[in-house]
Structure formats: C-alpha cells, structure tokens
Amino acid sequence: xxxxxxxxVAVTLGAVSFGAISAELLTKEAYNDHKSEYVKVGTITTSGxxxxxxxxxxxxxxxxxxxxxxxxxxxxxxxxxxxxTADVYNKK
Length: 92
Known about the structure:
Residues 1-22 form the signal peptide. This protein is α+β, with helices and mostly antiparallel strands and 92 residues long. Helices cover 37% and strands 36% of the residues.
C-alpha cells in the first residue's frame, strides 16, 4: 500500500506545474531515455509538506539552490505528510 501511495504522489508531483519555478521535474522515463545528457549535482529531500504541490515547490526550490535545472523524484511517501527525495541534474 505504501508503494502505491508513493507512486500516486510521484505522479501527482509530476502533473502539477509552476511557471515561477525554474528547476524542471523530469519523469524517470524521460531521464532514462536521455541519461547521457545529464550530470548529477546532488540529492534533495522534503518532508512535512501537506500537499503534492507544496512538495513539488519545495523540491524545485532546493534544486534551484543546488544550481540544478532538472530533478527526478526517486521516492515519495504519504504516511501523515508528504516526504520526497529527488536527484538533481544539469545538462552536460
């Protein structure tokens, strides 16, 4: 059940978009299709967010702070609040 919730959160995070946020969410599929074009610059996490859009905004903000232009959600959990982890990338 936790896995299904995590997948639902990841999909929801991917469906929400913000024009003011500069780091772009990549799906795992899009990243894997063009893996050689990206260089990893770090890993970010968020916890305690109350909505998928808040979690996405926080991950994007942290990716920006790392100097990344893209991030890929690697895990998500919705125990009581939304917790997520993402890898941050730049184009080579």
